[in-house]
Amino acid sequence: MIQVPSTLSLYLGKQFLKYVGVIFAILMTIVFLGDFIEALRRTADRDDITIMILLEMVTLRLPTLAMKLLPFIALFGGMLTFFRLSKTSELSVIRASGVSVWQFLFPSLFIAFAIGMLVLTVINPIAAAMQAQNDRMEAKYFETRSNLLTLSTNDLWLRQVDENGLSVIHARGAVNQGIDLTEVIIFQYDANDIFTGRIDASEATLRPGFWDLKNVVITGPDRPAERRDRLELPTSLTILQIQESFASPATLSFWDLPGFIATLEHAGFSGDRHRLHWYSLMAGPVLMLAMVLVAATFSLRSLRQGRTVLLVLGGIATGFVFYFMTDIIYALGLSGNLPIILSAWIPAVAITLFGLAMMFHLEDG
Q1: pTM assigned to the model
Q2: pLDDT, tens digit (0-9, with 9 covering 90-100), for 165-216
Q3: What DSSP element (H or E) covers 185?
Q4: For the chain, does the N or the C end have fewer beta carbons within 10 angstroms?
Q5: CA distance 150 to 166
Q6: 270 near 179, Cβ under 8 Å?
């Protein structure tokens, strides 16, 4: 096997980086403009939200959106790179000199994997912090989340807002995915945030439209303690709202997710959604490498007249099939029909095997 000169490897790597950069700039410009226009539409009747606030929120969301698009950027950037090299006959000259397809692809594969590792270890924490700031601004300006849940190792705090005022619920733990709370204290406030009373209960069970409290002690300003065996406390909360009140996986960095998952499960809630996100982040570098293989599958072949468009469409179709397949597999994992770790890794492994199989076929051909 012929040794590939370092100069050639550097040249091929630079070409890949250049066209990946071009695709990245184009897609992110489109995403930024689309997101900004949607933000303008949402705030058309709001005078308290300025253009600068909207620009800040759109910018804060951009890194998270970029991470979602990264596999497609690698796919389209790789296709553009290899098409350009084929069109200028550079690919034919390189192959004629005895360089195998694997040697030719190595610089692009290495760069794609390195980008994936950089995103996982460095970019992801930055993107998570920016997404968390965006969520806080969403809650402030759009009031998207009126019920907030906070977890610590030994405590659970739930903020419940309704037409009568505010209730702050504290519990030592939860079971049955948050339906049953233990050692509950409820602090009640009126619409003016004035403290009106406190309710202590040994247990609280979420029923449709109310909390079912047991072994209750009711106290308040200038009133004696009142004991009851049971009490129904009205609530607009549902179990889905409670579970959605957790910090979104996108707002937690790769390094923070394991600790948050442990806290979540210690409190009696399912950590499947966050664990799936964590495993999918780990699969990211492999997925980047796989997308370059797929790009090569549709690009590193004789571009006969009239076939270029078909190859481009084939690459784009493969990307979209992968996208929908990933959503389906993730849904199977979250529903419990597939182990979480498998549902996170299957898309990356499947697309890698597809790319390898096609490349072996191409090389043998």
Answers
A1: 0.80
A2: 788 888 887 776 667 888 899 998 887 778 888 999 999 888 888 889 999 9
A3: strand 180-189
A4: C
A5: 16
A6: no
